[in-house]
Amino acid sequence: MSTIQLIDRYSRQVAVIGKEGQEKLSRAHVAVIGLGGLGTLVSMYLVGAGIGELTIVDYDTVSLTDLHRQLLYREEDVGKPKVEVAVRRLRDLNSTVKIKPINEALTDENSELIVKNVDVVVDALDNWIGRQVLNEAIVKLRKPLVHGAVNGWYGQVSTIIPGKTPCLYELVQVRSLPQCVGYCPVVGPVVGVVASIEATEVVKLITGIGELLTSKLLIIDGKNWVIDEIKLSRVENCPVCSRYLKEK
């Protein structure tokens, strides 16, 4: 990355994370799984921040009901594949970022291949079945995961480091938002709050700056503006962690 790029494009950010932090971002590869409300906004923030490479994964098309919270899309995009629209808009935002679109659903067959070569994974899914598929892959491959979820006025965020923190399976056993099946009511700006926190966690993970939401679940109540933090503990004999992680 040239000095001109640092000064002209990222000067406000470099003033906070330093040149070394910006260089770390420029070398990092992040995968965002899901291009709905959370995924579109997280992707925009990461591309704006100067992530080196971004893999975006979604199989869906844009619908009219998406537009109140998925701000990457426009009315003219309704019916188009999300990854096709997203990659074009994200490249318009920052042409220096390498973007890899994957127009597929996350499955047991492709999950490991998708996250194998990335540094950080972002959970921007809208269902817990998909999250458990993702959880198996990140635990097996020991990939850091930033988890986010939204339901109504409420949201939650946690950062998972396999082998050191509870995984998503363990998180669900302790506390989680209600599971959405086919339809999930959400308030647009609350999605924005959660996505911003997720993107911030990714930046902190990559740069090594600041305290992470590891072994913690941040709960956001956007209706009453109550923000709480729940401490998480490992679940004994977690079926996912016990299968893939061995104590050194």
UniProtKB/TrEMBL annotation:
The residues covered by the THIF-type NAD/FAD binding fold domain are 10-240
GO MF terms listed in the record are:
nucleotidyltransferase activity; thiosulfate-cyanide sulfurtransferase activity; ubiquitin-like modifier activating enzyme activity
Coiled-coil region(s): none
Source superkingdom = Archaea
GO CC list: cytoplasm
Which Pfam families does this one have?
ThiF
Q: Which family does it belong to?
A: Belongs to the HesA/MoeB/ThiF family.
Please give the name of this protein.
UBA/THIF-type NAD/FAD binding protein
Q: Write down the species.
A: Vulcanisaeta moutnovskia (strain 768-28)
